């Protein structure tokens, strides 16, 4: 009587391999007059690494051969049934216990003999072949992983999605994708740099994604979630941690900028209403004259506030700073007016000179970074020499541990210095980059209304802003530009006469003393003394033998003789005028002082962005 049979096939992705197995096994069925139905063909995907107990086709076969009274199973060859000896033995027990015989087509033998026991040939073959196939699979897997690990080590592609901003070269290595997208006139790499710049400027992922959508950029930067992943991707600074190690890649942005963006990302996690974050024009520029913290904007009050003088500030509880609040509308308006006036009225030659300090500083910073990188190489060479000495028993364990500890400390200090210099370099490079854009758009400054663009211009021109208040409304603002030039601004927030006007003083000829709220007229820079013993000197280890107070002229001379020509006394000193013969003015007297070559009165327009938002919210509630 003809017996019913089933066919089990374990196939690879090769379609010819599948068809050959099916054809040969069906021919064997026909030659032996077995009964076979297509529904009794069971198959699994071939894998040398997947757990063999997870095969759906085999599980279905084992279940249905009993229910369908199938007594014969045909298999292409032994490794297709199982690769591990333990699995082969388990299957052998199953088939023997259920009186089901298995024929291995390639090996040309049956599993069971005529008595229903495992044949001697099958038993020996299962033991030997099972061990060999398991060894082969393990060896193949190790070779596969080794090849992939080597690819990771050399920055090669191992499969998966290629990160936005990169492409592959002829050797499958990651390279920066600078190919211009015709419809955008920008490359993927340009877009990555742009979104990092925008986030550094204070925009949220929501705002950046809207800008990207308006420019019809690729989808990855038009969605807030995928954009956030872009901003956190370490691949853009030269490495990616994957399962098989650390894969090096060409950096797209500086480490300093990436670290700054990560700090902003972390700080923004705790802030509510992330999608509606507003642009504060003086963020990162306005510094408290009392505690030195940068002011933060509070849009509901239209005010810049010191974070250490805010009872509601969660990160600075228990702090108490006397730094006053200041109107956003007023200070933004005055600052923007001054920036426009300085740039528009400046001759072309002076505009270029305005940014020359950034160019010089960039070159200097690059040299400093190169010096520290050379120092790092020297430190690594010391480590190698120390290891060799220790291996040759030239150091005791304690001596070796101490020496390696010193080397690690030096390396960490060196890396921290490089990171700080890179942050400074990135700042100056962005200033220079934006200055080129500004130089070409001087005549358009008056027409700029977009807050992002206004902030970029201010950030490029202004280094720092501080202010003092006399009472609640009399305000003295000191603006320092990137070329070290300073201006002093006076205005009275409630003055009816000359409202929306401010008085500008030449900082070289006037000094405001916050201790007595008086203005001192200076005939020259020699009228200013400098405190020699400051935190700056201690921090930078400048060992100058100076008196307690020293004039600017004398300080310049000592700096030159001490080869400290890079230090500008106006940057590192706290100036105090000589009080013995200077003319002294009160705030009101200075505000009403006739305009001359050292003072001038100017109109300005408030930038009432936050007041208008508040008015809109009020009207909606009504």
TrEMBL record:
Annotated ranges, domain Recombinase: 163-271
Positions of the Resolvase/invertase-type recombinase catalytic domain: 4-155
A molecular function GO annotation: DNA binding
Signal sequence bounds: none
GO terms, biological process: DNA integration
PROSITE patterns per the UniProt record, alphabetical: RECOMBINASE_DNA_BIND, RECOMBINASES_1, RECOMBINASES_3
Species: Mariniphaga sediminis
Keywords associated with the record: Coiled coil, DNA integration, DNA recombination, DNA-binding
Key word Transmembrane present: no
Pfam families linked to this entry: Recombinase, Resolvase, Zn_ribbon_recom
SMART domains referenced in this protein's UniProt entry, alphabetically: Resolvase (SM00857)
Tree of life domain: Bacteria
Xref: Gene3D superfamilies: Putative Large Serine Recombinase, Chain B, Domain 2 (3.90.1750.20), Resolvase, N-terminal catalytic domain (3.40.50.1390)
Active site: 12 (o-(5'-phospho-dna)-serine intermediate)
Recorded coiled-coil stretches: 362-417
Protein name: Recombinase family protein
